[in-house]
User: Fold this.
Amino acid sequence: MTDTSLHFPDGFLWGASTAAHQIEGNNVNSDWWRKEHDPAAKIPEPSLDACDSYHRWEQDMDLLAGLGFTDYRFSVEWARVEPVAGTFSRAEIAHYRRMVDGALSRGLRPLVTLHHFTLPQWFEDRGGWTADGAVDLFARYVENCAPIIAGGVRHVCTINEPNMIAVMAGAAKAGDHGFPPAGLPTPDEDTTHAVIAAHHAAVKAVRAINPGIQVGWSIANQVYQALPGAEDVTAAYRYPREDVFIEAARGDDYIGVQSYTRTKIGPDGPIPAPQDAERTLTQWEYYPPAVGHALRHTADVIGRGMPLIVTEVGIATSDDTRRVDYYTGSLAAVAAAIDDGLNIQGYLAWSALDNYEWGSYKPTFGLIAVDPVTFERTPKPSAVWLGNLGRVRELPRTTT
Ligand code: BGC
Assistant:
């Protein structure tokens, strides 16, 4: 086996990702905050102070830039920017603008997500995504983000994992309010239609703010793999959970690809990984090439011309050596896909920090450890290793 390497394509994004609710702390006006404190929702632990990144974002950015990363994906929290319907907080908008300027001044290009799972409580109270007027309300919020994204921001992600939003809505109807397992419950169709409409309205709003912004959205890809004979079942299972959202990205400037593991599908649906398969702290099968499959599938659905950006990929583990192994395998799959002509424009690891993993702090995805009491940050060896690849601008490529 020989190891060679592939030089980053021009302008390649090299970074790490976060989401506001998972790192900021005290997101008290959001639907998740309320859910975390509702015993009926059975959420194992609340987010509380999270990583206190609302106050420590400069330190987070200093670390990422110092490690060698050139890109940082973070999200704007709708519940802060519009805590009451129609009332926009100038101070919060200025806060997120400072983050954009802070990233730029450190040599980090910001990729700004406008919605990453959490909603303002008032929006949830009026019926969430499927209520009348929801799409217009989201578009109005996006318009009000103009001061944050109008200058200096090259990439905007309108909605993170709309397919998981539809799946969570489907699960909630069945009484399950947590973050779903990889097998994926049935998505709620009305929510699917609503978030697709919201995305299209948001793309329009972002382009009106600045037509130079590359706008898209990020889809969770479960890498459904058909067992022999189960190809049709797999395609039918995948369509409402994935492909419908990929197709809705036609006309966007790029599509975000997010992948962690795979799911095998037999004639009767998903098949759990074998008992002896290595599992991560989220209980997902350890499967480093997942993102390579996800990229290829996305390109098959949307067409090869569409720029692809890996906006999340990573592993929840307490064994940081295994994290390096995972990223090594994942990057080799990305390099192979670039070799095969896919238009891949970036790779952002999930996650910059050990953060609030939708119900629990136990699954640690971070490149940087965070002390839950002092909030002290400590980069792990994987952060140093991955950041350094950004300095040499090379992707590992393994050939046999
Ligand atoms: C989400 C993140 C989440 C990660 C790991 C993605 O589904 O966008 O918020 O923490 O996967 O579960």
The two ends are 5 Å apart (CA to CA).
